[in-house]
Amino acid sequence: MNWKKALRALLNSILLIFFLGGAILFALLLALLSGAIPLYALWPLLAVGGAGLLALILTGSGYLGSTGKRRVKCGFLAVCVLAAAWGGWGAYREHLPTLDDRALLLREYQPFTEGTKAVTLDKPSTLRFDSFTARHLRLDGATALYPVYAGFVQAVYPEGDYPLSGTVACSNTVGAYQRLLDREVDIIFAAAPSEAQLAAAERAGLTLHMTPIGREAFVFFVNSRNPVTELTVEEVRSIYSGEITSWRQVGGKSWPIRPFQRAENSGSQSALQRLMGDVPLLEPETEDRISAMDGIIRQVASYRNYKNAIGFSFRFYSTEMVSSNDIRLLTLNGVAPTRETIRNGSYPISSEFYAVTAAPAGYPSPQETNSDIAAFLEWMLSPQGQSIVEKTGYVALS
Predict the structure, then answer these.
(1) Which of 59, 94, 129 is the last residue before a domain boundary?
(2) pTM of the model as a whole
């Protein structure tokens, strides 16, 4: 073949493949961002596509002999095998059961909707708000506590539509505390604030006022195939500090422990930090996510149910809202996390959860200056309010 013709053929092949490869890459990125293909499938597809384009260029150049072409084909086949293995691992990982607040279908508890799981009172509520008060008394809170305050709303607010982004919102613990500090809501329902959230309130010139409205257990769980059923609180601290690294050290199999954590300032992560005290935490498991606006960002990985994993949450959330036969709650110090052991105080990690308000430092609390907030908080602590806490699945204060 004339070298000029060969060069022209090679350049034409490169241009064709360049435009074809660009179109394929653009289509893949669009499919990824639209959710048509999962993230774990992107890299294998790009690897196979890139290797295929390179193989076309090399084999179409006219400079490779039969041996060279055979090697290129073998290389392309090897890339395909590796890509398939990577994609298979990604598919396996994505289909492992997870425990993550974002997976919860909160709309199942939305007040006044057909078939709502939000509890109702046996008798009419002793407190009722009119539509004006309902529009102006803005609520938010932790995902795990939405069923509780959805029940409060269903008892006290007038019947209507209360979308999750409206007057009765559910932004999760981090978002709810931030919205309270930004004065966008009046009451939030959450676990005790983290040190960072208390510091943020101080910087904003605000004081947080916390009214306990119920009790809950902080629990740890493992894969149901894990033979370990019990830990001590000290063993939990040792696992999350990195001192204990194998399940064999606590009576299990010779599996390395994968201790998952939650996002900073989330209710459960703050509970873990309080449990650890001065003991430093391990660096958490992380994962890459692609966002259309933010590019590639690094996030704390939510619990993924590997056979050697350990995770944590609150009892009601992990047993009622996203119950799974694939995980098992651990007994701590010989006591199982049940409503009875929370009530009698024998379970070692139980605490109150709160209705939280905010006011400028040095000023009276909102419940002292706003009669509607005061009446609502008082009603939450009444027999009717506490019955909703209990019927929802948490533990009433008395």
Answers:
(1) 94
(2) 0.72
